[in-house]
Amino acid sequence: MASGNLKSLVIVAGVISAISTGCSVQANTRLPGTPTVPVARLAHSNGPALLTDFSSIFQQDGQAVVNISASVDQPAATLNPLWPPAGSAQDPFSRFFRQFSPQFSGPATGPSHSLGSGFIISSNGYVLTESQIIAGARKINVTLTDGRKFRATLVGNDPASGVALLKIPATHLHPMKIGSPASSKAGQWVASIGAPYGLSNSMTAGIVSNMSRVIPQYSYIPLIQTDMTENAGEAGGPLLDLNGEVIGIMARVRDVLGNLQGLAFAIPIDEAMKVEQQLQQEHRAEHGRLGIKIQELSGQLAQSFGLNRPNGALISSVAPGGPASRSGLRPGDVIQQMNGINVTDSATLPVAVADLKPGTAVHVVYWRGHATHDATVVLGKLGEATPEAVATGQMAAPDGLTVRGLTAGEQRETGVKGGVRVEKSAGPAAFAGIEPGDIIVMVNSTPVSNPTQFRQNVEHSGRSVALLVQRNDRRMFVTIDVG
Known about the structure:
Blueprint: H1 2-22, E1 39-40, E2 50-51, H2 55-61, E3 65-73, E4 78-81, H3 92-98, E5 111-120, E6 126-130, E7 139-143, E8 149-158, E9 163-167, E10 189-194, E11 202-213, E12 223-226, E13 238-240, E14 246-250, H4 254-257, E15 264-268, H5 269-282, E16 288-289, E17 292-296, H6 299-304, E18 313-318, H7 323-326, E19 334-338, E20 341-342, H8 348-354, E21 361-368, E22 371-378, E23 380-381, H9 387-391, E24 395-396, E25 401-405, H10 408-414, E26 420-425, H11 427-431, E27 439-443, E28 446-447, H12 451-459, E29 464-471, E30 474-481
Antiparallel strand pairs: 1-2, 3-5, 3-7, 4-30, 5-6, 6-9, 7-8, 8-9, 10-11, 10-13, 11-12, 12-15, 13-14, 14-15, 16-23, 17-18, 18-19, 19-20, 19-21, 21-22, 24-25, 25-26, 26-27, 27-28, 27-29, 29-30
């Protein structure tokens, strides 16, 4: 009986041993100089590796990530109604009129702060970050992981791409290693280090969802999409591959798309470094412009245009008087080549155009009427006023106002002779309460009748400007401190 029990014990031990061997965690081997990324997988399994440790990436790259605080002076803006006149709070005449007047809060003053991240790209103090973090900043402070703080100089900012370059007075810094997005693909693990809500040295990880997500409201560059969540303060930080190399700059897309849960985007580092070179050499970046809007060419659309397969960028609209219009391009044309390089889809064309300087002549091959044609287009400048805007008299400025002249019908309807109509209101103007549709009748004490006169009067007003604004048959002065 004892012998039988002993045999059973031996058999059970052998089974346990076999099971343990089949589920053993394999040791992770690596070449000298590469970061350790431990993985666990089942032995004799062809399944994908399960990542369990990003600590080596954090140790390698964490010291190159910085915390950025940009100070923007809050404009002092007040809405001053024409009526009632200033008087004692106990004056019954004054109290009578105040009950019919809107209540305005006092002027807001003091600095506001924009928090973000960045990363060191050279040992002598160049820092790459995201454009919106430092937009309009009067003072930019950079804090290193060792606690040192520096006043940063803005080398250049390029809102068109979303890239900004800073310089801090420090040397012997640890720069980030620049990688290549071409080595990454959807489904691969990535990580990011930043300062969400100002909490520095924070790391998160996820996978790549898409390598070429087009969001034209943010950038002409197709973005890398991940399944991480975009948090305030993380923008400007590096997106890292498993070698600890930068493949992107975390983008602040929530400002244009809203706060989308489980989504984050990054500017591909190869395109960002092209912009960085321009910013470092010229303190600004210029991009070419065709003056068209394009859309993806689906299989059904390709067939309707007589193409065997979807190949190219379909023009959906052409700016009147723009570069493409002057060269004879029109909606329905499918651009297939530019300067001998195939245009495979709608995502590749904007980048190829924006990489060129304004004034560059490009040779375009396009498909129209079941045949190929070619044209030479002299590129305009991305961000310049379009002929459409000029035709309607629109003008924009740093005070945040885009205005146009009133049509004859609008003048009759509103009872205003002259004046300008607000098309867009942002920055100091929006803060002051000016809205699209408002009509500006006077600048300080001078009546205005067209956008050019309006802009000239504002520019000669100095730091503070008073605008007489009409809204729904009611007028009031709006004071804007534009600095």
